[in-house]
Amino acid sequence: MTVESKTGYKRLKPKKTLGEILDVAIEFEQTARDFYSALVPKVSKQLRYLVEELAVEEQRHFDLFSEVRARPDLESQIGEMVETPASDARFTDCVHLPELGEEPDDQAVLQYALGREQAAIEQYSALAETTPDGAIRELFIFLADEETQHKNELEKIYYEVVHSGGV
Amino acid sequence: MSVRDVISPFTAWKNVFLDPVSIKDPINTRPGAPRYRGFHQNDLDKCIGCGTCETICQNAAIDMVPVEGEEVKDGDSGLRPQIDYGRCCWCALCVDVCMTGSLTMSNEYKWVDRDPDAFRFIPGVDKKSWDDAELGYRRPELHTIKPGLRVDMGEVEPEERICNFDEIVDGYSIEQAVLEADRCVECGLCVATCPTHMAIPQYIAAVREGNYEEGLRLLYDSNPFSQVCGRICTHKCETACAARHEGDPIAIRWLKRHITDTVPVEKYAEIIGPPDAATGRKVAVIGAGPAGLTAAYDLARKGHEVVVYEAQAHPGGMIRYGIPEYRLPYDVIDSEVAVIEAQGVKINYNCRVGVDITMEQLHNDYDAVMLTIGLHLGRSTRIPGTDHKMVTKAVDLLRDITAGVEVEVPRRVVVIGGGNVAMDIARSMARLQKQKYGEVGMTVTALEDFDHFLADPEEVKESFEEGIEILDARGPREMIINENGELMGLKTWRVISIFDEEGRFAPSYDENDEIDHAGDMVIEAIGQMSDVSLLGDELTEKLEWNRGRIQVDEAGRTSEPWLWSGGDCVKGPDVVHAVADGHKAAASIGSYINAREKQS
Hints:
Chain A has about 170 residues and is mostly helical. In chain A, about 70% of the residues lie in helices and about 5% in strands.
């Protein structure tokens, strides 16, 4: 890890290139995937399905975002500077791993996952709002949609698990 | 041959000049009268395959037959009437008795075909020219053979019942029950919907005939919790009832209760009959709730020795410790359990598996083990402030009230939740408030709006009657705690929508519509889960799980061959499903034991 990334300066500077933003987005998914993968053996067996599903979903996003990063039509724009929104600090915080305790229960895992998705939605939506029309803006909208869809799925699981039919 | 014989045919020519008395084109003209009882029509969307037309037909001209594309579902047999015009006399009784008004008769009466089999057809399925005919015979409106309205069930008045925990439903008198039973057309659609497939038309017929002992025998053939289900069953059978299409469904649940109320409890054992001879085989059941005790009852009747391990001091599980006494009196549960114990089932109370005895011991000491542990742990919203000592969970409080533990009763209480448990705790605490303060100070805040409410409508109605404030579409945000650390209430936002267009949970809130609900106590009643800690790490690891719940096969068997599970901890809360689970597991355990017997 470089000194720059340790201090967080690079993450929190007011403007970033599109490449940097995408790198953080990819890292965001990667750390989450690794986090959930590492959590699988720690949680009780009846909850593992949940953590495994989260890891799979983050891997899917990681693959998708990596693919976007490598798209030839973005190559020319990858160095373009984009204004980072106010939500950037929270978003980059989410790249770091949370404290869920040694044996988190299903509700804690879901609340954490929902929080991450919400941070990502806000980040990409804010980026889309401040970026002029064009391919980059469309990309941010796409990323925000992806995270929104995932959050919706998690909300549904949360309702089923926690509200358990509203008994 | 005479001359006359030759001339006479020519005399007919004089008729050429007369006006004709017959019709020139009898095939294409002369429609039937507007209300003529001609060929049948059937609206397939309205038909539920109840078969009352088949039953009433005096000529056996109607057969209910399966039809491609018509699926069997709750309240619909998937069968449709096939009419044989070799037998039909066009009396229209089938139309008069049709429970949905789907079967009608067109005013078409001409049908020419060389194939005699063509005259046996399925209206609505075999397309005919009269399918869309607007004229013909329809049952006149309100001209029904059976009365549409059910016999009202009496209840204690709200002002009286809010002062105590006495049962609020009166039960039918014999006269009322016979009147209600007389509404049933015995179509049997309800049987398929009932999870334990009770012989509903037959026991209703027993009420009608005054043969209560036969009724009780029929009840206990399929449900050893008939007294309980006669009071608190979710009665999905009534949602399948053919009578609901043009009136109220038959009060199946109340008729069940009527039978159990009418037959003296002392006679139950004699009517049910003794168990089979002892087999020498032993089964352990964990949890004395409906699923566990149903399995115990079935197995004991087969002659197996059954020991039930119950953590609480009394039997019933969730139905005792989760349902207030005004809905289900404890003596009804005790009476029910006495019937089960009379079959030889032994219950060890205050014996917590995992503490007083291990799963491993049960595995070693018994031929099979049935795990029915209910949903005794409450969920929390975990919004800020839920760790305050005056924020509590509904299941804990209901358990304490049942156990006779003195609970704190503040003047103002807020409940979070919109399901039956939320109503149960709100109504229980309201009774305690009334006893203590002479008034009710209860607010229920539910995430769901009234169109999507989870509690039974009658629970909501009765809660309102008892002075409970129910606010729908309120999302809990945080507990309100003052500078002294005292709980002051709950802050909520209005829920704009709770589900997205695809029906998924996706709540959105109006932050500008914020309400502070004053309360000295907040009770969370949002959901429940099982306490599976009794399994221990090793067994938890060995077992297969299905999205957080123990995975079982159709018969309730887990991935461990000696262990079965069922009831609320597997299927979610519902007493009659728990009974059904108990039966399935008992049958499977019985087969397993017999197979082992043959091997040894």
